[in-house]
Specification:
477 residues, Aldehyde Dehydrogenase, Chain A, domain 1, Aldehyde Dehydrogenase, Chain A, domain 2
């Protein structure tokens, strides 16, 4: 049974209740976590505040960097342990789970080097005055981490917050939190002070709500659905607490007739099957120049038919979905496609040895999806790619921007002028041209516009959000 981690100590929830952990590959219970409540959140916030007030806020930036570097090294040393936890918890194939653990080490390494690079400015002002700005931590930051990429999002969120000098209270998703508990323990092992990182598990409506409402939380970082993001904002607004929100996407891959299809097609496939399509930045809409629409779909369909889903340990193209309700959500979307006569181009397969009790979905390629259909408007969060044709550049831009989301877009074209035009015209937080994801670099600021949220995580830009700016004006003499 897994316990909360508060003040560098493992603690049973005050509720005395637990939540079963299911292995998505077979649907079986393999562990228990704490079903925490508002009292546990209060304990964690108090531990974080004591840490911040009694030393962490005064720890030199270089020393915070050294601690983060030691944590990076400890995570790198424990990659095998961490990826095994994440694989069992989330159903990730081995390559993906291992990549997430490696990325976590890299996040801590990046922010370790950034700690003593964060600084303010001096501002020209009236004669006889010196004016300067300081970047100061908020204090105690709250972090709601989703189930699809626990380690990666923990790294980019907690790494940035710690680098800026905050103490953290973390509420992981109840579906996937074991790796984060272990990382918090590793942080204590390498010397992080008690209360710097606190992990409280439980349901969103109980623990997440208590975290968002707690008056001791000075900033909230949330990654999840737009509906829950709205609730977080509403609660935070009541006490004027700043928030950083990443709320998903319906990201387009835009392929022009002059694109290098040999380079584009593997990236397009990977962008929808990675993590079984359960990715905020999944390339879930495929917009294709009508001049190459039919031949591209023929090639892509052949690639889809070779894709295989199966148990995480088999390390296939994709593993299971996270839970039965998510599997049912994908089934409902596909049922709508069938009812509305939306054609399927091709579908991969689920291997015969996959347990029937697991939460599997074969990768599916649909064509001629109307732009107004919910398949083209809503996050499916599964391995379903929706294709549609466009007439010209203006039409492509109109289709790409025709959703409430604006997280990521991919553009495939050899025309240099068009590359810049598209990058300017697309309403998206990230635009990748002739690539998609750029290797997931931790240095690249990440976030969205419109209903995809606001604020940025990853890169140096994230440190701005985890600090507040203080202006100091000094009159001489």
């Amino acid at each position: 049974m897994q316990l909360n981690f508060i003040g560098n100590a493992s603690q049973v929830s005050s509720s005395g209740l637990t939540i079963p952990m299911l292995d998505p590959s077979d649907g079986e219970v393999f562990d228990q976590i704490q079903r925490s409540n508002a009292k546990d959140i209060d304990d964690a916030v108090r531990a974080a505040r004591q840490c911040f007030d009694t030393g962490w806020s005064k720890t030199p930036a270089a020393e915070r960097g050294r601690l983060l570097m030691r944590l990076s090294a400890r995570v790198a040393q424990g990659v095998d342990e961490l990826y095994a936890l994440e694989q069992r918890d989330c159903g990730k194939p081995t390559r993906q789970a291992r990549a997430d653990a490696v990325a976590l080490a890299r996040y801590f390494e990046f922010y370790a080097g950034a700690c003593d690079k964060l600084h303010g400015d001096t501002i020209p002002y009236l004669d006889g005055y010196s004016v300067l700005t300081w970047r100061e931590p908020h204090g105690v930051t709250g972090h709601v981490i989703p189930w699809n990429y626990p380690m990666q999002i923990f790294g980019r969120s907690i790494g940035g917050a710690l680098a800026a000098g905050n103490a953290c209270v973390v509420k992981p998703a109840e579906d996937a939190c074991l790796s984060l508990i272990r990382v918090a323990q590793m942080a204590a092992e390498v010397g992080f002070p008690a209360g710097a990182i606190n992990i409280v598990t439980g349901y969103g409506h109980e623990v997440g709500d208590a975290l968002a409402r707690h008056p001791g939380i000075d900033h909230i970082s949330f990654t999840g659905s737009p509906s829950v993001g709205t609730l977080i904002q509403q609660v935070a607004a009541q006490r004027h607490c700043p928030v950083t929100l990443e709320l998903g996407g319906k990201s387009p891959q835009i392929v022009f007739a002059d694109a290098d299809l040999d380079a584009a097609l593997p990236a397009i496939v990977n962008a929808i099957v990675q993590n079984a399509g359960q990715t905020c930045s999944a390339g879930s809409r495929l917009l294709v120049d009508q001049a190459i629409y039919e031949p591209l779909l023929e090639r892509l369909g052949a690639m889809f038919e070779k894709l295989r889903a199966g148990p995480a340990s088999m390390d296939l193209d994709l593993g299971p979905l996270i839970r039965q309700s998510q599997q049912q959500r994908v089934w409902d979307f596909l049922s709508d496609a069938q009812a509305d006569n939306i054609s399927m181009v091709a579908q991969g397969s689920v291997v015969d040895v996959a347990p029937e009790t697991g939460f599997y979905q074969a990768p599916t390629l649909l064509r001629d999806v109307p732009v107004e259909h919910r398949l083209a408007q809503q996050e499916i969060f599964g391995p379903v790619l929706c294709a549609m044709a466009f007439r010209d550049e203006d039409h492509a831009v109109a289709l790409a921007n025709a959703t409430q989301f604006g997280l990521v877009a991919g553009v495939w074209t050899a025309d240099g002028a068009r590359q810049f035009r598209m990058a300017r015209r697309l309403r998206s937080g990230q635009v990748f041209i002739n690539n998609y994801g750029a290797g997931g670099g931790v240095e690249l600021p990440f976030g969205g516009v419109k209903s995809s949220g606001y604020g940025r995580e990853k890169g140096f830009e994230a440190l701005q959000g985890f600090t507040t700016l203080k202006t100091v004006a000094i009159k001489h003499g």
